[in-house]
Amino acid sequence: DWGNENSNDQVFQSRAQLKADKRANKQRxxxxxxxxxxxxxxxxxxxxxxxVPEVTCASRGDNSVMDRIKRxxxxxxxxxxxxxxxxxTEGIISIKELCSLVEHMFDQNDELFEMFRxxxxxREANRRKYSWFCKPLSEIDFSDCKRVGSYTxxxxxxxxxxxxxxxxxxxxVLNDNWVSVPQGSEDYSFKHMRKNCYEEALFKCEDxxxxxxxxxxxxxxxxxxxxxxxxxxxKMTPEELSTFAVDDNDxxxxxxxxxxxxxxxxxxxxxxxxxxxxxxxxxxILGRLQSKADxxxxxxxxxxxxxxxxxxxxFHKSLDHRxxxxxxxxxxxxxxxxxxxxxxxxxxxxxxxx
Length: 354
Fold this sequence. Notes:
This protein is mostly helical. The chain is built from 15 helices and 3 strands.
């Protein structure tokens, strides 16, 4: 009886007991495996304070590499390397950050360092499989986490990924602590309706329009950034020009890709030259971007007529979702062989009745 207070108290007590058992199991598993749950923001400072985890390898070759590192570099260096490896396997640092952390510990032993790097690269698939960042939300325990509507706060032990390209504005508005977790069960066994050729034409048209709009907007954003830099350069003294360098916050990766796009295979080289000598290269790149902006604007006007015709010709026909199945069935029943088989069946039925 759900209206009975005693039955409600029993339900709440059983739920609390299940949560307590689940927490106890998690603590026992963490202690048994010796996992390191260092915070990603200060993992460099804490790397020397965590306990050394048990390093397990899948093959004799892996064991031999780690044993050789321990024998050649000594126990102290091997311990520090093992801590960094554990941060890597937990998904807190990347392979590039791991190599930069441990490279100086190999004391110019390039052959041993290359063996270690190759071993870590081969473990990338396993690291992703067991990493926090690659776990589906269904496998994360949110029972003790704060919930607001469909949003749930991540567990405290969940490491925060490192991002070096964020500005102060990004840090103040972007979310790193909350995820959307749907409540209830969802059935993923359904199949999407097959698209007909008219829908395919509409989707293709929409993709083309979206891609062109994104290219134009990225190009205009880059032009705006370069114009601001050019105005800043024009106001500088010769002494300031000699030390001027472009800040990554002013010229982001989106703007670098916009420049690379218009120069094709030479794009990366042009971006490097721009960062090496921005004073002389700004005007050249800016002129190129403006000419491309005019060219893409004209192409957009010309394509609008073609896109409008495609939408008008295909929209109403795309609403008929049964056309494909109807035509398939119509082709089957209008086949001469189908008529002959139908006539034979009826003739056989009449013959048997007589």
